[in-house]
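re: that complex we talked abt at group meeting.

here r the seqs, copy pasted straight from the sheet so there may be weird spacing, ignore it
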Amino acid sequence: MFSKKMKNLVPYVPGEQPQDQGYIKLNTNENPYPPSPRIDKFLQTFNTKKLRLYPDPLFLELREAIAEKYKIKKDQVFIGNGSDEVLAFSFYAFFDRSRGKLMFPEFTYSFYPVYCDLFNINYQKIPLTTDFSIDIKNFLHNTESCGIILPNPNAPTGILLPLKKVRDLLDRYIDNRVIIIDEAYIDFGGESAVSLIDKYKNLLVIQTFSKSRSLAGIRIGFAMGDKALIDALFVVKDSFNSYPANTLSLEIAKLAISDIKYSDSVIKNIIKTREKLSDTLKHIGWNVLPSTANFVFAEKLGIAGEKIYLKLKEKGVLVRYFNKPGINNFIRITIGTEYEIDVLIKKIKACF
Amino acid sequence: MFSKKMKNLVPYVPGEQPQDQGYIKLNTNENPYPPSPRIDKFLQTFNTKKLRLYPDPLFLELREAIAEKYKIKKDQVFIGNGSDEVLAFSFYAFFDRSRGKLMFPEFTYSFYPVYCDLFNINYQKIPLTTDFSIDIKNFLHNTESCGIILPNPNAPTGILLPLKKVRDLLDRYIDNRVIIIDEAYIDFGGESAVSLIDKYKNLLVIQTFSKSRSLAGIRIGFAMGDKALIDALFVVKDSFNSYPANTLSLEIAKLAISDIKYSDSVIKNIIKTREKLSDTLKHIGWNVLPSTANFVFAEKLGIAGEKIYLKLKEKGVLVRYFNKPGINNFIRITIGTEYEIDVLIKKIKACF
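got the structure back, here u go
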């Protein structure tokens, strides 16, 4: 009863989302702080009669708010149902088997190969350096490539590729193939490539409200790039779902993006806690990769990531590990509140 | 810069969604009444801190509420970001070119051919009878078919295929090909095929919160069918977007589906207004198809649908027409409040 395409699908497995609230949840890179307080007020006075109508299929108000914040034009912004949907539409629109392989880092967001299988795209994993960073030279050997996608900072490593290197990559790669910079975690200390979209017509920058803005629950992501790229994303969207972003989420995102003071203070706290966690782990003999994200990727030599994960879960703390050769000794720890990270540190010190 | 697949895409064009509120909006089959009052209370007291977390990727609570309402099992229910997304996932999961053509009615929801282009599915439009109804015999000639999709009641005609005929179709069609009954409008007087899903393992019934429950703005649709079909939809979902339904919409839908008394009263009002509109139009010489939906499809002989649409728009009332030979004399009128329909009738009487 199933289409032939189904045989190729091996779905992405997200981190656990336990419905009981008993865990300290440091496993899916959610923000430990609540979203902007403006959202409370908004929901308290929202006229629910508006929900009888379809949302704006052009997302005009939110696109304007994002354009204002990033000093770009509204027609350089696309909105989707989480950055995962924006990624899926982008894979469909820009990459295909006929023009070569899509390149992405060997260790990266594990949804990328899933989208490739979903849309029959060929791909090539590009090795990282021995210290787990990205060397752009490795992306320039392949002359038969249909595009590049890089998270920046990379996940699950947390390592940033400096903007200068992103620019080098754009300068040296084929200019009629799309390069996507997936900036889900850029706000935690990186510099966005959005400043380059006017110059590089093949650059698409994807961001989300799930991380720095504490709104994983509303499912809003966005892409910024040349109008031609944005128009292509609208063609895919309008061939899939006229209204992928719902009324409440669009309004909430608009409020969140304008409350810069609040998100700056949240980000500052998270960076402070991240540095404290990194320093402490190093101090007790862990190898901690230098993170510019809201998580750290760390290993205790000689102990498998799975084992650490299981032990910490038993102790009421959820982290994430990846069962892949090369990184299977690491755990990825989302930066929680200071209190949560203190608890984690205590458990780690007691157990390992 | 674009993938080859993009060349095939001709996006669906939804009805206008004017952002100014000046029109009487009878063009996109929205419900004129607000959603359940339980939703006001919910939003007023909602703890926005929950939005920092991802929603439940398994949609457990809403699936339970839907299962309870339709007396089926939770694992027979799938949730998506509007029934459009559920449809898109279903087209991907169940239909493909290698097993023949997908069949759907000649005049029907015009998103179906768009999904076929998106996922490279071959299709065949099956003629309606001269009175615009569906004759299931016409779906049984083709022995090389990969499936069937039927809206019931059909759109834009509004005509219902009685449940007995749906059962006949299931009995006589190939049992290893999926039949989708798209029941977006079933609550306005039809009888759902959900009662047949235990017997027919190839039957998928798709419904929405956008119409009878006045919640087009939250983007929640759902599918009901055998667990094997539901599992396949989860595989596609998890290869596209782990969390397509957001936290607030999941909660709101749960409240709406349990408020049966409220939705029954809304539906009763709409049916009453629909019958009044149909009778009045017939009385002034229009041809009105018998509707079991929240809209009527009607023509004034000798006047093109586009002309009627333009004249009514000028007068502040939005309806919809379809520029397709065979139905281009019709307009589709969404059932508004009694007041809105009275205004429409006055305008029609004055203009035509």
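couple things i noticed - The radius of gyration of chain B is 20 Å. Chain B has two domains: 14-34+261-351, 38-258.
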